[in-house]
Amino acid sequence: MLKVFKAMKSVTFLILACSALFFSTSALALKTFQLSAQVAGLTASAASTALANRRAVYEAVARTKAKARLRRIVASIPIAGIAAAGYFERQDFLAWQADHPNGTFEEYSCEVTTLSAEVIDEVLQELPEAVRPSKDLVIAALPDCAQ
Q1: Average pLDDT, rounded, for the chain
Q2: Which of 17, 51, 81, 88 is positioned for an S-S bond with 75, CB 3.0–4.6 A?
Q3: Is the torsion defined by CA of 32, 38, 43, 44 positive or negative?
Q4: In this structure, what are the phi and psi dihedrals at residue 7, rounded to the nearest 5 degrees?
Q5: Which residues are within 8 A (CB) of 139 and not within 5 positions of it... i.e. 6 or more apart?
Q6: How far from chain centre, in Å, is Cα 60?
Q7: Model pLDDT for residues 31-60, shown as the tens digit of each residue
Q8: Residue 104 C-alpha from the chain's centroid
Q9: 92-119 burial, b if ≥16 CB within 10 A, otherwise e?
Q10: CA dihedral for 56, 86, 121, 73, sign (positive or negative)
Q11: Average pLDDT over residues 84-105
């Protein structure tokens, strides 16, 4: 009888252990499926956000290029070009001044000069060789901004 009782105790323990393992495995499988679905949703969301951001950047760049193209066209007309260049420069200065309320025109000029010096090679290479001034001549025309 003692052997039967020990056997029943062992069988009961094995049944409880197997049941616990079955339910914990089932719960983990369910959680795995839930997390997989969540990852898939977040991946799709990230992809659509990246696409929207890429589109927004493309549109901003295209808009900036269009504005620059229009400025070049208007600036190529002799008298209207001089007035347009002055107008465009004034608008750029006012936009800069909105970010720098205490800034002066000299500070703006120095910042534009610094930025222009960084891209001068690229701009000069875009010009036809017949009308391309030398880099030294252009740099000499830029104002001196010792800081």
Answers
A1: 83
A2: 81
A3: positive
A4: -65, -45
A5: 117, 120
A6: 11
A7: 999 999 999 999 999 988 988 898 889 888
A8: 30
A9: eeeeeeeeeeeeeeeebebebeeeeeee
A10: positive
A11: 88
Which has more pLDDT, 135 or 54? 54
DSSP 143: P
The whole-angstrom separation of Cα 31 and Cα 19 is: 18
Contacts of 107 (CB under 8 A, 6+ apart): 100
**DSSP, res 1:** -
Query: Two tokens at 84?
Result: 């347009």
Closest by Cα among 121, 123, 97, 124 to 109: 97
pLDDT at site 146: 66
Residue with tokens 């679905």: 37
The size of the chain, in residues, is 147
* DSSP line for 20-65: HHHHHHHHHHHHHHHHHHHHHHHHHHHHHHHHHHHHHHHHHHHHHH
pTM: 0.43
Q: Please state the three-class secondary structure of 61-122 as a single string.
A: HHHHHHHHHHHHHHHHCHHHHHHHHHHHHHHHHHHHHHHCCCCCHHHHHHHHHHHHHHHHHH
Reduce the DSSP state of residue 103 to 3 states and report it: coil
CA distance 100 to 25: 62
